[in-house]
Amino acid sequence: MHVERLFLSPSRGEAQRECRQIEVLAGQGVVGDRHFAKAEWAGQQLTLVEAEEIERFCAHTGRTDDLAITRRNVVTRGIRLNKLVGRQFRLGNCVLLGIETCEPCRTLGLRLANEALSAPEVVKYWVGRGGLRANVLTSGQLVCGDALTIVESVEDAA
Fold first, then answer.
1. Per mean pLDDT, which range of 3-7, 60-64, 85-89, 135-139 is the poorest?
2. Domain annotation for the chain: domains and CATH numbers
3. DSSP one-letter string for 39-106
4. Which of 21, 24, 59, 95 has the highest count of CB atoms within 10 angstroms of its CB?
5. How far apart are CA 138 and CA 95, in angstroms?
6. Is residue 151's pLDDT more than 80?
């Protein structure tokens, strides 16, 4: 259970930047990301997705593996993210709270559609697989390779 890749999206529609590490601030999210310090919806501070789900989609659609295709901030390996909804977990030296599943949107469908798979089919494929929206509870750095561990109690988060 670890961080496989990290990404920033500086502005809407702009290409994502892959990073070796990113800074997150409690209550605000990823420094330099287009959603930083915004509170338009719950869990807007940080998004995560499973590398295994991206690889499965790429194999299903005949695409080359590309862990950036979902435009999530953190790509994990070895954990079912849906199980973290409502739970605190530690990623590196930061504590996060899983808010809700990150369900696919029309934009994702349009971006990943091709002649073999329509935008609605893409969205349908990603339902329940799109990752997790999380809030940042403690500030720090996230680094590729960081372990992900579930926080069992409030004392464990300190």
1. 60-64
2. 2-157 (2.40.33.20)
3. -SSTTTTEEEEEHHHHHHHHHHHTPPP-TTTT--SEEEES--GGGGBT-EEEETTEEEEEEEE----H
4. 24
5. 5
6. yes
Phi, psi at 89, each rounded to 5°: -145, 155
Contact assessment for residue 136 and residue 24, using Cβ atoms and an 8 Å cutoff: yes
The owner of tokens 């999380």 is 134
Segment 48-55 mean pLDDT:
96
pLDDT in tens, 77-133: 999 999 999 999 999 999 999 999 999 888 888 888 988 899 999 999 989 999 999
Q: Per-residue confidence at 154, pLDDT binned at 50, 70, 90?
A: low
Extract long-range pairs of 123-128: CB within 8 Å, 24+ residues apart: 125/57, 125/60, 126/57, 126/70, 127/103, 128/82, 128/101, 128/103
